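TASK: fixed-backbone design
INPUT:
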């Protein structure tokens, strides 16, 4: 049980660090705070609400992974390096993919709600 508790504390420390230092994480947490209650209103049932909330959490999750990759790359070499640029670009592409997916989920649920 102690290991699980420590893992939880490490995760909280990561979230706190991201909120203090990363603009994209701040923006996505703000979006989560606004959109979470909205998801409960827009979603017609439990599964739609769950899909909307998981889409938001997926965006945040991938942003944390992208940030971790970028920080590791910067630690390995702060200089411009073509291979490091490719790694960072691919991590950024993952963010874009999950954001598009989340947007599609939200648009689909909203369209269904509006009867479109």
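OUTPUT:
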């Amino acid at each position: 049980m102690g290991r699980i508790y420590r893992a939880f504390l490490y995760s909280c420390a990561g979230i706190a660090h991201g909120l203090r230092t990363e603009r994209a994480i701040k923006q996505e947490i703000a979006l989560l705070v606004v959109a979470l209650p909205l998801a409960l209103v827009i979603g017609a049932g439990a599964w739609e609400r769950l899909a909307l909330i998981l889409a938001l959490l997926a965006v945040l999750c991938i942003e944390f992974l992208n940030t971790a990759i970028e920080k590791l790359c910067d630690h390995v070499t702060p200089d411009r390096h073509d291979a490091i640029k490719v790694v960072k670009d691919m991590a950024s592409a993952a963010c874009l993919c999950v954001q598009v997916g989340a947007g599609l989920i939200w648009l689909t649920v909203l369209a269904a709600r509006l009867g479109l």
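COMMENT: The first helix runs from residue 2 to 21.
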